[in-house]
Amino acid sequence: MKQGKFITLEGIDGAGKSTQLAWIVELLQRVGIPSVVTREPGGTALGEKLRDILLDGSFMIYPETEALLMFAARREHLGRVILPALTKGQWVISDRFTDASFAYQGGGRGLDTAKLEILEHWVQGALQPDLTLYFDVPVEVGQQRVSQGGSIDRFEQEKAEFFQRVRAAYLDRARQFPGRIKIIDSSQSLAEVKAAVEQTLRPLLNNV
Length: 208
Ligand code: TYD
Description:
Layout: E1 6-11, H1 17-30, E2 35-39, H2 45-55, H3 63-87, E3 91-95, H4 98-108, H5 113-124, E4 131-136, H6 139-148, H7 160-176, E5 181-185, H8 190-206
Parallel strand pairs: 1-3, 1-4, 2-3, 4-5
Protein backbone atom coordinates (compact mmCIF):
# COMPACT_ATOMS: atom_id res chain seq x y z
CA MET A 1 0.00 0.00 0.00
CA LYS A 2 1.17 3.51 -0.83
CA GLN A 3 2.17 5.69 2.16
CA GLY A 4 -0.09 8.65 2.85
CA LYS A 5 1.20 12.20 2.62
CA PHE A 6 1.96 14.29 5.67
CA ILE A 7 0.88 17.93 5.39
CA THR A 8 1.41 20.51 8.12
CA LEU A 9 -0.06 23.99 8.57
CA GLU A 10 1.89 26.76 10.24
CA GLY A 11 1.60 30.46 10.98
CA ILE A 12 1.60 32.96 13.82
CA ASP A 13 -1.52 33.06 15.99
CA GLY A 14 -4.36 34.62 13.99
CA ALA A 15 -2.88 33.68 10.59
CA GLY A 16 -6.09 31.86 9.60
CA LYS A 17 -4.83 28.27 9.55
CA SER A 18 -8.01 26.78 10.98
CA THR A 19 -10.22 28.24 8.25
CA GLN A 20 -7.89 26.87 5.58
CA LEU A 21 -7.69 23.49 7.27
CA ALA A 22 -11.40 22.95 6.68
CA TRP A 23 -10.88 23.84 3.02
CA ILE A 24 -8.00 21.36 2.63
CA VAL A 25 -10.11 18.56 4.09
CA GLU A 26 -12.88 19.43 1.63
CA LEU A 27 -10.39 19.35 -1.27
CA LEU A 28 -9.09 15.92 -0.26
CA GLN A 29 -12.62 14.56 0.20
CA ARG A 30 -13.50 15.77 -3.28
CA VAL A 31 -10.73 13.71 -4.84
CA GLY A 32 -11.43 10.71 -2.59
CA ILE A 33 -8.29 10.82 -0.43
CA PRO A 34 -8.87 9.51 3.13
CA SER A 35 -7.40 11.93 5.64
CA VAL A 36 -6.84 12.34 9.36
CA VAL A 37 -6.97 15.84 10.82
CA THR A 38 -4.97 16.47 13.94
CA ARG A 39 -3.10 19.20 15.82
CA GLU A 40 -0.09 20.07 17.93
CA PRO A 41 0.46 20.34 20.73
CA GLY A 42 -2.15 17.59 21.12
CA GLY A 43 -3.55 14.88 18.92
CA THR A 44 -3.46 12.15 21.60
CA ALA A 45 -5.06 11.90 25.05
CA LEU A 46 -1.73 12.64 26.76
CA GLY A 47 -0.82 15.29 24.18
CA GLU A 48 -4.09 17.15 24.80
CA LYS A 49 -3.32 17.20 28.55
CA LEU A 50 0.12 18.61 27.78
CA ARG A 51 -1.57 21.17 25.52
CA ASP A 52 -3.80 22.29 28.41
CA ILE A 53 -0.69 22.87 30.53
CA LEU A 54 1.25 24.59 27.73
CA LEU A 55 -1.58 26.99 26.86
CA ASP A 56 -2.57 27.75 30.47
CA GLY A 57 -1.70 31.40 31.02
CA SER A 58 -1.45 30.96 34.81
CA PHE A 59 1.81 28.94 34.55
CA MET A 60 5.34 30.32 34.38
CA ILE A 61 7.26 27.88 32.17
CA TYR A 62 10.96 27.97 31.27
CA PRO A 63 11.61 27.93 27.50
CA GLU A 64 13.47 24.61 27.89
CA THR A 65 10.49 23.04 29.69
CA GLU A 66 8.18 24.41 27.00
CA ALA A 67 10.29 22.84 24.24
CA LEU A 68 10.59 19.51 26.05
CA LEU A 69 6.82 19.31 26.61
CA MET A 70 6.16 20.17 22.95
CA PHE A 71 8.46 17.35 21.84
CA ALA A 72 7.07 14.96 24.46
CA ALA A 73 3.59 15.53 23.04
CA ARG A 74 5.03 15.17 19.53
CA ARG A 75 6.60 11.80 20.28
CA GLU A 76 3.21 10.43 21.38
CA HIS A 77 1.52 12.04 18.40
CA LEU A 78 3.93 10.54 15.90
CA GLY A 79 3.84 7.06 17.39
CA ARG A 80 0.13 6.77 18.03
CA VAL A 81 -1.50 8.89 15.33
CA ILE A 82 0.70 10.20 12.51
CA LEU A 83 2.83 7.19 11.58
CA PRO A 84 0.04 4.57 11.85
CA ALA A 85 -2.21 6.68 9.62
CA LEU A 86 0.51 7.27 6.99
CA THR A 87 1.29 3.55 6.96
CA LYS A 88 -2.39 2.80 6.30
CA GLY A 89 -2.26 5.12 3.27
CA GLN A 90 -4.21 7.92 4.94
CA TRP A 91 -3.08 11.51 4.54
CA VAL A 92 -2.37 13.38 7.76
CA ILE A 93 -3.13 17.08 8.04
CA SER A 94 -1.64 18.52 11.20
CA ASP A 95 -2.42 21.97 12.50
CA ARG A 96 1.23 22.75 13.47
CA PHE A 97 4.26 20.49 13.84
CA THR A 98 8.01 20.89 14.46
CA ASP A 99 8.42 24.15 12.49
CA ALA A 100 6.31 25.72 15.28
CA SER A 101 8.94 24.68 17.84
CA PHE A 102 11.67 26.36 15.78
CA ALA A 103 9.51 29.46 15.32
CA TYR A 104 8.04 29.84 18.84
CA GLN A 105 10.62 28.25 21.16
CA GLY A 106 13.57 29.10 18.87
CA GLY A 107 12.58 32.48 17.41
CA GLY A 108 10.06 33.64 20.01
CA ARG A 109 11.74 32.42 23.21
CA GLY A 110 15.31 32.56 21.88
CA LEU A 111 16.20 28.90 22.49
CA ASP A 112 19.29 27.68 20.69
CA THR A 113 18.29 26.07 17.40
CA ALA A 114 20.98 23.38 17.80
CA LYS A 115 19.20 22.16 20.96
CA LEU A 116 15.90 21.97 19.11
CA GLU A 117 17.57 20.04 16.30
CA ILE A 118 18.74 17.45 18.82
CA LEU A 119 15.17 17.00 20.08
CA GLU A 120 13.88 16.90 16.51
CA HIS A 121 16.33 14.18 15.58
CA TRP A 122 15.64 12.26 18.77
CA VAL A 123 11.85 12.31 18.40
CA GLN A 124 11.34 12.04 14.65
CA GLY A 125 14.60 10.83 13.12
CA ALA A 126 14.64 11.87 9.47
CA LEU A 127 10.85 12.14 9.18
CA GLN A 128 9.65 15.49 7.78
CA PRO A 129 6.29 16.60 6.42
CA ASP A 130 5.83 16.13 2.67
CA LEU A 131 4.46 19.66 2.49
CA THR A 132 4.17 22.54 4.92
CA LEU A 133 1.87 25.47 4.23
CA TYR A 134 3.07 28.53 6.08
CA PHE A 135 0.30 31.14 6.31
CA ASP A 136 2.05 34.47 6.48
CA VAL A 137 0.42 37.61 7.90
CA PRO A 138 1.81 40.81 9.38
CA VAL A 139 1.84 40.62 13.18
CA GLU A 140 -0.75 43.42 13.54
CA VAL A 141 -3.22 41.46 11.40
CA GLY A 142 -2.67 38.27 13.43
CA GLN A 143 -3.05 40.09 16.72
CA GLN A 144 -6.23 41.79 15.62
CA ARG A 145 -7.76 38.45 14.57
CA VAL A 146 -6.74 36.86 17.89
CA SER A 147 -8.28 39.70 19.91
CA GLN A 148 -11.59 39.18 18.08
CA GLY A 149 -11.63 35.51 19.07
CA GLY A 150 -12.51 34.01 22.45
CA SER A 151 -10.18 33.62 25.42
CA ILE A 152 -6.48 34.45 25.10
CA ASP A 153 -3.99 31.60 25.83
CA ARG A 154 -0.43 31.73 27.21
CA PHE A 155 1.12 32.34 23.78
CA GLU A 156 -1.53 34.74 22.54
CA GLN A 157 -0.89 37.01 25.52
CA GLU A 158 2.67 37.68 24.30
CA LYS A 159 3.61 41.12 22.93
CA ALA A 160 3.96 42.08 19.26
CA GLU A 161 7.79 41.78 19.43
CA PHE A 162 7.46 38.10 20.34
CA PHE A 163 5.34 37.46 17.25
CA GLN A 164 7.73 39.49 15.08
CA ARG A 165 10.48 37.06 16.12
CA VAL A 166 8.20 34.05 15.54
CA ARG A 167 7.27 35.31 12.08
CA ALA A 168 10.91 36.04 11.18
CA ALA A 169 11.88 32.51 12.27
CA TYR A 170 9.11 30.98 10.13
CA LEU A 171 10.25 33.01 7.11
CA ASP A 172 13.84 31.94 7.75
CA ARG A 173 12.81 28.30 7.79
CA ALA A 174 10.80 28.74 4.60
CA ARG A 175 13.96 30.09 2.96
CA GLN A 176 16.00 27.23 4.41
CA PHE A 177 13.58 24.52 3.17
CA PRO A 178 12.00 25.98 0.02
CA GLY A 179 11.09 22.57 -1.39
CA ARG A 180 8.96 21.63 1.62
CA ILE A 181 7.69 24.90 3.10
CA LYS A 182 5.44 27.00 0.85
CA ILE A 183 4.55 30.53 1.89
CA ILE A 184 0.89 31.50 1.47
CA ASP A 185 0.11 35.21 1.75
CA SER A 186 -2.71 35.02 4.26
CA SER A 187 -3.44 38.75 4.26
CA GLN A 188 -5.24 38.32 0.89
CA SER A 189 -8.99 37.77 0.64
CA LEU A 190 -10.32 34.39 1.76
CA ALA A 191 -10.99 33.40 -1.88
CA GLU A 192 -7.44 34.28 -2.89
CA VAL A 193 -5.94 32.31 0.00
CA LYS A 194 -8.13 29.32 -0.90
CA ALA A 195 -6.95 29.48 -4.50
CA ALA A 196 -3.31 29.68 -3.38
CA VAL A 197 -3.80 26.66 -1.11
CA GLU A 198 -5.37 24.65 -3.92
CA GLN A 199 -2.56 25.58 -6.30
CA THR A 200 0.08 24.58 -3.76
CA LEU A 201 -1.58 21.22 -3.09
CA ARG A 202 -2.11 20.45 -6.76
CA PRO A 203 1.29 18.77 -7.43
CA LEU A 204 0.75 16.38 -4.49
CA LEU A 205 -2.83 15.61 -5.57
CA ASN A 206 -1.79 14.98 -9.16
CA ASN A 207 0.76 12.53 -7.93
CA VAL A 208 -1.65 10.16 -6.12
P1 TYD B 1 -2.89 27.16 18.05
O1 TYD B 1 -2.39 26.14 17.12
O2 TYD B 1 -2.76 28.56 17.61
O3 TYD B 1 -4.35 26.78 18.42
P2 TYD B 1 -5.64 27.71 18.49
O4 TYD B 1 -5.90 28.03 17.05
O5 TYD B 1 -6.64 26.80 19.12
O6 TYD B 1 -5.25 28.90 19.33
O7 TYD B 1 -2.23 27.05 19.52
C1 TYD B 1 -1.11 26.38 19.80
C2 TYD B 1 -0.08 27.31 20.39
O8 TYD B 1 1.07 26.52 20.70
C3 TYD B 1 0.36 28.40 19.43
O9 TYD B 1 0.39 29.64 20.10
C4 TYD B 1 1.78 28.02 19.07
C5 TYD B 1 2.24 27.14 20.19
N1 TYD B 1 3.22 26.11 19.80
C6 TYD B 1 4.55 26.26 20.15
O10 TYD B 1 4.92 27.27 20.78
N2 TYD B 1 5.46 25.29 19.81
C7 TYD B 1 5.10 24.16 19.14
O11 TYD B 1 5.96 23.29 18.86
C8 TYD B 1 3.71 24.00 18.79
C9 TYD B 1 3.27 22.78 18.06
C10 TYD B 1 2.81 25.00 19.14
